[in-house]
Design goal:
The protein contains ten helices and eleven strands. The chain is of the alpha/beta class. The chain has two domains: 24-55, no CATH class; 57-298, 2-enoyl-CoA Hydratase, Chain A, domain 1. The radius of gyration is 21 Å and the shape is globular. InterPro entries: AcCoA_carboxyl_beta (IPR034733), Acetyl_CoA_COase_Trfase_b_su (IPR000438), ClpP/crotonase-like_dom_sf (IPR029045), COA_CT_N (IPR011762).
Length: 299
């Protein structure tokens, strides 16, 4: 008789739910090469305990950091992209989509959700770099547009966490249309005096930088994040000059006036809550009233 018997049959655990598997026990910082235990690295929210290098994380981690008790309701959870151009590179686009979905457990490169952060209602859209380089295709644009509509309908602030290599080439022109669509929706959000905070994380480039990522009432970034439109090599070849040190880092972009502030991930939730606390007040009907509107009323 065996020592252990499987009582329940057919237990299948998705890869991302498995404990202690894929990452190993140790983390080596790519910047300063310090080795720490994975547990300690996670405890410091995937930032290096020695040099504060911010490791890339996904929507799952950001939602856990920002939503109170990691409680949130996801919007348009199952939206997936079509193949409008019958695009084939090294493999057909639908095959790539299916393989990426299996590998990452994600449906596309953005997840949108609403819930409470620091007791205040908020709608958050967060991109995932693991899904085809966080590229912006039709689904990314549509989900962000709908999340903005949700924020407008429920009168909640909107936070966008960008992390993207730019437009998705497999959807070509359809990707570029998302820039106009999301920008137009953000204009409506602004008209209704609801705050939009844009958090730029490593990397935020291409069409994402050129549309919603730079349109925040506050544009904030994580330390050391690469932020730009075209890559340094392209720019160097175009202008025929060497680029200054630290070019396209969050710190460089801040110094040149494109960002409001840089926020350490460990302080992100508190800073966000403080900022929103200054911008909004809870209205009588639930949801929020923007303070400028109230000021205008009393004048
Ligand atoms: Zn380090």
């Amino acid at each position: 008789m065996p020592w252990f018997k499987r009582v329940e049959k057919g237990i299948i655990t998705p890869t991302e739910e498995k404990k202690e598997t894929p990452d190993g026990l140790w983390y080596k910082c790519p910047e300063c090469k310090t080795v720490t235990s994975m547990a300690e690295h996670r405890k410091s929210l995937n930032t290096c305990v020695k040099c504060n290098h911010h490791d890339r994380i996904g929507s799952k981690e950001y939602f856990a950091i920002l939503f109170d008790d990691n409680k949130f309701t996801e919007l348009d959870e199952n939206m997936t992209s079509g193949d409008p151009l019958n695009f084939v590179d090294s493999k057909p686009y639908p095959e790539r989509t299916a393989a990426t979905q299996r590998k990452t457990g994600l449906k596309d490169a953005v997840r949108t959700a609403y819930g409470k952060s620091g007791g205040l209602d908020i709608t958050i859209a967060c991109m995932d770099f693991a899904y085809i380089g966080g590229s912006m295709g039709s689904v990314v644009g549509e989900k962000i547009a709908r999340a903005i509509d949700h924020a407008r309908k429920t009168r909640t602030p909107f936070l966008m966490i960008s992390k993207s290599g730019g437009a998705r080439m497999m959807e070509a022109g359809f990707s570029l249309m998302q820039m106009a669509k999301t920008s137009a929706k953000l204009a409506l959000l602004s008209e209704e005096k609801l705050p939009y905070i844009s958090l730029l994380t490593d990397p935020t480039t291409g069409g994402v930088t050129a549309s919603y990522a730079m349109l925040g009432d506050f544009n904030i970034a994580e330390p050391g994040a690469l932020i730009g439109f075209a890559g340094p090599r392209v720019i160097k070849e175009t202008i025929g000059k060497d680029l200054p040190k630290g070019f396209q880092s969050a710190e460089f972009v801040l110094e040149h006036g494109f960002l409001d502030f840089i926020v350490d991930r460990k302080e992100l939730k508190q800073r966000l809550n403080d900022l929103l606390g200054m911008l909004v007040e809870t209205g009588d009907q639930g949801g929020i009233e923007a303070k400028p509107e109230r000021a205008a009323k009393t004048l």
